[in-house]
Write a structure and sequence with these properties.
This protein has 4 domains: 197 residues, P-loop containing nucleotide triphosphate hydrolases (Rossmann fold, 3-Layer(aba) Sandwich), CATH 3.40.50; 48 residues; 217 residues, Rossmann fold; 83 residues, Valyl-tRNA synthetase, C-terminal domain (Helix Hairpins). It is built from 19 helices and 20 strands. It is globular and about 85 Å long. 43% of the residues lie in helices and 21% in strands. The strands form 5 sheets. The chain has a 6-stranded mixed sheet with strand order 5-6-7-3-8-9, sandwiched between helices. A 6-stranded mixed sheet has the order 14-17-18-12-19-20, with helices on both faces. Strands 2-1-4 form a 3-stranded antiparallel sheet, with no helix packed on it. By secondary structure, it is α/β, with parallel strands linked by helices.
């Protein structure tokens, strides 16, 4: 059995008076892709920083295989240099690999680093990490601010990379596609599941059921020992001193268990009253900014209670679409009729409404005092903050001291105090842990008002949306009943031109920037091995493609198993693309081999 490439053994770290890690063991094997899952505040980001050596633990060991290179993309990357290409090469990556990575993520390598959007910052940081071709890559919430197409590019980059990966993410669909192992950070320790994220939640449920049973047994034992104490320990003090110590130990165990229970977030959401049956009716909408066309001749009707998801690449005009539908922006052509009695609240992905230097208390009570008006009823700010898992001491801290997940919870706390019958959620899932996401989904599912959801989280969309509007960035907009999977199944190839254009740009960048091969009389050993691998892949490809096509030919498959149909469709596209790429690479290697052998 090979030793892990990067590992922690019995790591302990205190955060002030509280233990953050108490005996953490974690090992990454070469080329293995794992996720690190845990609640906001459990210490996931801190654990990544210990792994890369930015933070030194109070106790325990960190071991790294000799010569191992590590790339790290934090939650809030710092982009340096005049251009994103300078940033991508700042860690020593060759220019041609950096340019290819940037282009694959849809970035212009010569784009300046000033004024980048959240998505552009994320893509520039990811490009730098992959261009360095590391042995280990650590990613902290890598899908934040990425559109769905960019997330799929990221999935491809992770799959093609030789690096071992440890990923912190709340995006279930993303984790299911890329992981082979799960680490669960809970109660200051890490548990390991040697399977991908698809099996994580069932595994956790079993563990929690066992812990609940152990808790019940501990409570009964404590009750018996307490009863014994009350019936006369003093008369038998010497003989029963050991039993008394056992009781004290039981009490400490229960106290520790209670401290470990972080509590449950309490959210509420209330409509401000029914709007008219029609919320918005758009006919023939068109909108452009100069030569950039956002929307062409789009019509839709949103009724009370609808949950409309808006998806598409960054810059396609999703926020513009929201403003058009709510009458906040005039279309160039067409019309929008709004319903009656509409009250709208926003949760904005940019968190622009949160001033970094504001105290949490002031965010929740902008008019002063110590009361928050929660859906029309006054509630003390301390109690309301506790509903969202904020401690009383945190109310006197500035917003800038909060983690990304805590800032998003703060935005939710402020927004959900209001009553509204139309709620616009712009990337609401960024940085939220899965427990909070589940609670938010339940809350929104029971909401009587209308939701307009802009999100990159495919699982979140699939669980909530009654219809999905896709924007392709050229003005085309299509609406399909259901969520993301339904949209893709019913509109195959809708975003294909985007990915094809990015792939073409990446290929052009590699061709233009790659250094010329060194002259040699024959292929290198590595190239010979690769040629053999490609020949095997090309030989087996048609059979696998035929098997997938045969499965998809079943006329009843989509009706029985829409998710299975989608998986097979994606697998077929991926296999066809893989074989096509293999054939092109094989041809290039064969041409090089012939040229070398002929002396040309």
């Amino acid at each position: 059995m090979r030793a892990p490439i990067l590992a922690l053994k019995d790591v302990r770290l205190a955060d002030g008076p509280n233990m953050l890690f108490d005996g953490v063991d974690l090992a990454l094997d070469a080329r293995n892709r794992a996720c690190l899952v845990g609640r906001n505040g459990a210490g996931k980001s801190t654990l990544l920083r210990i792994l890369i050596g930015q933070i030194e633990a109070d106790a325990g060991e960190r071991t790294v295989s000799p010569g191992t290179t590590i790339a790290y993309v934090p939650q809030e990357p710092d982009i340096t240099g005049a251009t994103v290409l300078e940033h991508a090469t700042s860690g020593g990556a060759p220019s041609y690999l950096a340019e290819a990575a940037l282009t694959a993520f849809g970035m212009d390598p010569e784009k300046g680093t000033q004024g980048l959007s959240g998505g552009e910052i994320r893509r520039a940081a990811l490009s730098k990490a992959f261009a360095e071709d590391p042995d280990v890559i650590l990613l902290d919430e890598p899908t934040n601010h990425l559109d769905i197409l960019a997330i799929e590019v990221l999935e491809g980059q992770i799959g093609a990379s030789r690096a071992a990966a440890l990923i912190v993410s709340h995006d279930r669909a993303f984790l299911e596609r890329v992981t082979q192992r799960c680490f669960w950070l809970e109660h200051r320790q890490v548990r390991r599941l040697d399977a991908g994220f698809a099996g994580f939640e069932e595994w956790v449920e079993k563990i929690e059921a066992q812990q609940a049973e152990e808790g019940r047994r501990l409570d009964k034992m404590l009750e018996r020992e307490q009863h014994w104490m009350e019936r006369g320990v003093t008369a038998r003090r010497a003989r029963n001193e050991g039993r008394r110590r056992r009781l004290i130990a039981l009490r400490e165990a229960k106290s520790e268990r209670n401290r470990e229970n972080r509590g449950t977030m309490t959210m509420g959401l209330e409509s401000s009253g029914l709007s008219g049956k029609r919320v918005a009716e758009a006919k023939g909408l068109s909108k452009a900014f100069g030569e950039r066309v956002i929307l062409k001749d789009f019509s839709t009707r949103i009724l009370r209670g609808d949950r409309v998801a808006i998806v598409g690449p960054n810059g396609a005009g999703k926020t513009t679409m929201v403003k058009l539908l709510l009458g906040e922006l005039e279309p160039d052509a067409g019309s929008v009729k709004l319903g009656t009695n509409l009250s709208v609240t926003y949760i904005d992905q940019s968190r622009a409404a949160l001033s970094p230097d504001m105290m949490l208390r002031d965010v929740l009570t902008p008019l002063g005092g110590d009361q928050v008006l929660v859906r029309g009823q006054p509630k003390h700010v301390n109690a309301y903050a506790k509903d969202f898992l904020f401690k009383e001491s945190q109310l006197r801290q500035p917003v800038k001291s909060l983690s990304g997940g805590e800032r998003n919870r703060l935005l939710l706390a402020r927004a959900l105090a209001n009553t509204a019958n139309v709620m616009v959620l712009d990337e609401p899932t960024n940085d939220l842990d899965m427990d909070t996401l589940d609670l938010l989904e339940d809350l929104l599912a029971d909401y009587e008002g209308t939701l307009i959801l802009v999100s990159h989280d495919r699982d979140f969309i699939d669980r909530l949306a009654t219809s999905t509007i896709g924007l392709d960035g050229t003005g085309r907009a299509v609406e399909t009943p259901g969520g993301w999977q339904d949209f893709i199944a019913q509109n195959p190839g809708f975003f294909a031109f985007v990915t094809k254009a990015e792939a073409a740009k990446a290929a052009k960048a590699v061709a233009a920037q790659a250094p010329p091969p060194k002259p040699a009389g024959k292929l290198t050993y590595k190239d010979q091995r690769r040629l053999a691998e490609l020949e095997a892949l090309i030989a087996e490809g048609p059979g696998k493609i035929a098997a997938l096509e045969a499965a998809l030919a079943d006329p009843g498959l989509y009706g029985r198993d829409p998710a299975g149909f989608d998986r097979l469709t994606r697998a077929l596209s991926a296999k066809q693309a893989e074989v096509a790429a293999a054939e092109e690479e094989w041809l290039a290697l064969e041409e090089r081999r012939e040229a070398l052998e002929s002396g040309r």
